[in-house]
Design goal:
The chain is globular. Strands 2, 4, 5, 6, 9, 10 and 11 form a seven-stranded mixed beta sheet that branches. A four-stranded antiparallel beta sheet has the order 1-3-8-7, with no helix packed on it. Helix content is about 0%, strand content about 50%. By secondary structure, it is mostly beta strands. The model has no long low-confidence stretch (mean pLDDT about 95). A hairpin with a 4-residue loop joins strand 7 and strand 8 (about 75-80).
Length: about 110
């Protein structure tokens, strides 16, 4: 059974950068698409970025050019590098594959 553990959230100033990680257990990681979602206070959870098992990324329009999703199959880890952060990026970020979710990481963008 796959389990996901998110890490790396925190407080960052507008314009700053942050990288969050998601470590997976289980043998199917290399064959699974992985995604990052976020949920801001009072809003629905939304897709931020997804990466296929072959490493092809796709992004929400709101983060294109600022965020980069990547994966290391040997480490069973997926990353989200977030640059040029804006206050509206403040949210809890969740890692996901299929029906499995990480516990979430709070990212706060504020001066």
């Amino acid at each position: 059974q796959v389990q996901l553990v998110d890490s790396g959230g925190g407080l960052v100033q507008p314009g700053g950068s942050l990288r969050i990680s998601c470590a997976a257990s289980g043998s199917i990681f290399s064959f699974s698409a992985m995604g990052w979602y976020r949920q801001a206070p009072g809003k629905q959870r939304e897709l931020v970025a997804v990466i296929s098992s072959g490493g092809v990324p796709n992004y929400a329009d709101s983060v294109k050019g600022r965020f980069t999703i990547s994966r290391d199959n040997a480490k069973k880890t997926v990353y989200l590098q977030m640059n040029s952060l804006k206050p509206e990026d403040t949210a809890v970020y969740y890692c996901n594959t299929s029906t499995v979710w990480g516990q979430g990481n709070l990212v706060t963008v504020s001066s």
